[in-house]
Amino acid sequence: MDKNTQHIQESAFLVTGGAGFIGSNLVEALLNKGAAKVRVLDNLSTGFYKNIEQFSNHPSFEFIDGDIRDIDTCKKACHRIDYVSHQAALGSVPRSLHDPITTNEVNISGFLNMLVAARDEKVKQFVYAASSSTYGDSKQLPKIESVIGNPLSPYAVTKYVNELYATVFAQSFGIRTIGLRYFNVFGPKQDPNGAYAAVIPLFIQALLTNQSPYINGDGLQTRDFTYVDNAVQANLKAMLTDNPNAINQVYNVAVGDRTSVKQMFDILCSIEQKQIKAIHRDARAGDIRDSLADISKAKELLDYMPTVRFAEGLTLTYAWFKNNQSFINATV
Question: Which of 241, 254, 280, 306 could form a disulfide with 293 if both were Cys (CB 3.0 to 4.6 A apart)?
Answer without folding.
Answer: 254
